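User: Predict the full complex structure for these chains.
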Amino acid sequence: MQIKPILSALRRHKAGTFLIAAQIALTLAIVCNALFIIQQRVAHLSEPSGIDEANIFVIKSEWVGAPAPDQADAQMREDLQVLRQLPGVQNVTPSNSYPLRGDGWDDAIRLKPDQVQDSSGATIYFADENFLDTLDLKLIAGRNFRAEEIGHMDLRYKLAPPVVIITKALAEKLFPGETAVGKTIYLIGGPATVIGEVELLQAQSVEHWASEFAYRSVIIPERLNVSLGAFYIVRARPGQLETAMPAAVKALFAHNPRRVINEDDGVLSFSDVRSRAYESDRGMAILMGVICAVLLAVTAAGIVGLTSFWVGQRRKQIGVRRALGATRRDILNYFMTENLLISVGGVLFGAVLAIAINLWMVTRFEMHHLSMVYLMAGVAMLLLLGQGAVLAPALRASRVPPVEATRSV
Amino acid sequence: MFGYYLDLALRSLGRNKVLTALMVLAIAVGIGASMTTLTVVHLLSGDPLPGRSQAIFYPQVDADPKNKDSSEPLDMLDYRSALDLWSAKRADRQVMLVQSQVRLNTADAGKPAVMMPMLSATADFFSMFNVPFRYGGPWSEQDDASRARVAVITDDLNQKLFAGENSVGRVLRLRNSDVRIVGVLKPWRPSPQFYAVRGGRFAAGDTSDFYAKPEDVITPFFTGLDVNDGNFQQFTCWQMPPHPGHLQDSPCVWVAFWVQINDANRVAAYRRFVADYAAQQQAIGRFTHSGNTRMRSLMGWLDFNGVLPSNVRLQAWLAVAFLAICLVNMIGLLLAKFLRRSGEIGLRRALGASRAAVFAQYMVESGLIGLIGGVCGWLLTMAGLWFIRQQPVAYADLARLDVPMFLLTFVAAIGASLLAGALPAVRACRVVPAWQLKSL
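Assistant: Here is the predicted structure of the two-chain assembly.
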């Protein structure tokens, strides 16, 4: 393929060449970054929670009046009994929060009582002996709480349980390379002995500020009684989630009507919880996807338009070449190569621009550095797009008959 | 001449419908995307109190013993400091306010109780923030002092509970207390909910909750503290509070304090008053330091908190880049379109049309494309804003096109297409007539 005649022809069409290259460069820069944002959001929203999401739902029950802590605890235990007796319910546990809830109790963990700098942040989950089974957490070391270890407290007491279970992520952070079971950690209220380690349990918040301790959780063997009420995390028997949810609310009200369970968010299946937690991430990913698609379409249309114009302008020259013995394939190759040259120029410039935009976004929008894989993918995509877009006008050019050379000279 | 050019432009656009449609689409999509996001930016970054905001200030002192003079003071005030500054009445108006979640039982049985946010503020709240009333009015300063069991409700709640009737004098049951409604607001939707903005610097750009609707129930400050005692949330504490939920005399900050100072010359005096107060508190040993007091204006405070969500900013930047690509695209298409008619241009030039006339003709054509693109872009903007209203974000209900943005849509569309048309039109008017005529 002769590049030289193509280059000298392009020199006659500086404006058009520059416009196509500029458009490809800009599109590459935006599409790379948009794809990268999509990937980050999607990766974020597919992080596992570590629990049996398909069968879990959560009831938020608030007490009417302000029952004293002991009374609230008695009512809570009755509620748990009521829920456990339902046919569709496999297990139930009370807690102050649950993964992806977005709100809850985060605390600092230290390894010595007089330590100034915290060793880690962690999400605090209050639990009873059924917590592990209800959430289907995998115990990888140590043991579960025993029923007699479960206490109850309200917010006035210090958080100082004798024993706790922690997640593997927290264990690795606090005691790298060692087993955490049997060790002592310091919560805000005092020391606690680690008796067990679970594989995976996500924090209650998936926001940016909590990303540092996303999987570092501490499970506390206490029922937390606040006058406001509590969450009951319920694991339905497989396939019975739909029927168990309304049945649970009905049974709770039948047992004790002095409570508030909000209509819109009082009972949430875990899939509702998940979609609520990641609403903005999903919205952003969809928006970026739409923008990418429209951008690529606009760019392709622009290439088709300009190349068609060039083909129209050069009909006579094409006819001359054909008359002098060029095959259809030569003509096709000419336009394809021309586009490839422009596209390569465009993507080179676009790659630099993409990196520049990414660096700017890193400083402004808490973004990560662009991975080269995305840049390469973007480059390949735009080169293919260019070749695809130019195909139709180039085919039309190749069909220009040699007789065109003789017309209206 | 303009009419003639318009006629030429219409004929030219009709001649190649696909190319015209492509160009209109490029402008429309670019304008639609950027106007949708810019409208959101415009609505979210406006002045929530036009004409008044420059007189509103947010004084801060720092009771946290762990902080130093070099650190930024905490975002809210402790109860003691707020009460002292408020009681001094040194500004034209001053208001203390605090938000909490309260259980609302309606008087008529049968409806279940609901949890809802409540605002408790001192009486100046309504006059200071220009809050409009439909029925009744605010409570008095005596009601503040006597902890009167009264409340003001929003139009929304009035519609929900009383079908929009004048409900002044009716009774609400907040937790275990009855409060009498003394006023019903007109629809009131400040953007953002500026009086409750704080902690934005810790939000990592995720600030859309600052655009929530105002609380449906507003009670006098001290009444609220009594009625909902035990249910108050601290902004932060430097020690474990002895009675969680009851924060008077706790080592916590949880009260917002705003002042209105009408005379710009007295702002410095109030600043000094706040600094003196902090120094005096340090002297009596309640503060460990007093050098980091602040008094930002309302807009300064919103800026400091970075209220515009970073997702919105990111989308706006993307949309503008998108428009730029659409414009580059349109320049290319226009260039192709204009130069294809080089023969025609040569003929017009040979018959005596000046370069300026040719240039004007093609600019009219570009402008016409911009106008059609603007109409389509406006429709796309409406669709985009509708889409945002369906999103689960606190500011969703705000996303509507106002008159300035409506006009801007067309100005931007026509301006952008004239800009895009300039280069192709210059190239067109440089066509050499003789060459073209020869090849006709």
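The longest strand of chain B covers residues 93-106.
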